[in-house]
Prior knowledge:
mainly alpha
Amino acid sequence: MRRMFPGEESAQHFALALLAAFLPFLIFALSTGGAWLIDFSGTDNWAYIKFFQDWTSTDPVLRQVLDQDYKGSRTGWILLGYTAYHVFGPLVGSLAINMLVAFLSTLLCLAVTTRLFGIATGALATVIVSSHVGIYASGIPNFWSYHGSLGN
């Protein structure tokens, strides 16, 4: 079959690669019922929630606590969480952070590996990487809203 536009076949291959890359994430999200999106354990997660909600507080006692916590140096993760919490609220903000990290990590992996190795190899590498659920966050059960692998 003759293609009507130059690059049309490449666009179709990339669309299939994109679909394949997100398939492990979709299977994981559906099989867990979305329970991974809201964390319920881990003191570190609660520490970050403190930063997400009160990072710009001027209260001197709270400011001292925030300034003395080493987690405060992870500004890339805190800024993302602070913005999400203040734009969407805590519940939707948590969902947005986790989905954004999962989506972007998969998309960037596909983009980089495709650029380096071609569509077929890039798609295969991304499927393998995205099959490991730890890539979406820390890899620790019930510890998803943590900077772990990608938030920094």
